[in-house]
């Protein structure tokens, strides 16, 4: 189910050690990775200071875009859990005062969306 779920664009959790090895050079002083998820080619990382979206582009994936979103600019978010027939959970994030979500990601059932919600809530509400 993991490969099929990945092909559908659903994300799965990635260990902190793997994320630090691959993306540690993006972190500032006193910034740490809290949790991260990987799609087929893309990754998104929640750090102690921001959300980092890694978008691998092109056929080879050698061209990479790193989008950094400070938690202060996130105005609201929603988390939708997976259902019996719906195999994925979904995260939507609105930046500033936009009407439609700027960021929308899908997770497979192996991801605890309550962990994602908790990280966002701690940074946005805290």
TrEMBL record:
<feature type="domain" description="Bacterial Pleckstrin homology">
    <location>
        <begin position="2"/>
        <end position="124"/>
    </location>
</feature>
<dbReference type="InterPro" id="IPR012544">
    <property type="entry name" value="PHb"/>
</dbReference>
<dbReference type="Pfam" id="PF08000">
    <property type="entry name" value="bPH_1"/>
</dbReference>
<protein>
    <submittedName>
        <fullName>PH domain-containing protein</fullName>
    </submittedName>
</protein>
<dbReference type="InterPro" id="IPR037063">
    <property type="entry name" value="PHb_sf"/>
</dbReference>
């Amino acid at each position: 189910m993991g490969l099929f779920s990945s092909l559908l664009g659903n994300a799965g959790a990635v260990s902190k050690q793997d994320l630090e090895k691959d993306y540690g050079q993006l972190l500032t002083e006193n910034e740490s990775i809290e949790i991260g998820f990987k799609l087929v080619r893309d990754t998104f990382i929640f750090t102690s200071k921001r959300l980092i979206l890694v978008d691998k582009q092109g056929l080879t994936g050698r061209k990479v875009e790193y989008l950094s979103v400070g938690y202060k600019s996130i105005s609201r978010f929603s988390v939708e859990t997976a259902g019996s027939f719906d195999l994925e959970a979904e995260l939507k994030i609105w930046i500033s005062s936009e009407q439609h979500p700027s960021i929308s990601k899908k997770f497979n059932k192996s991801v605890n969306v309550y962990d994602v919600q908790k990280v966002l809530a701690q940074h946005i509400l805290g």
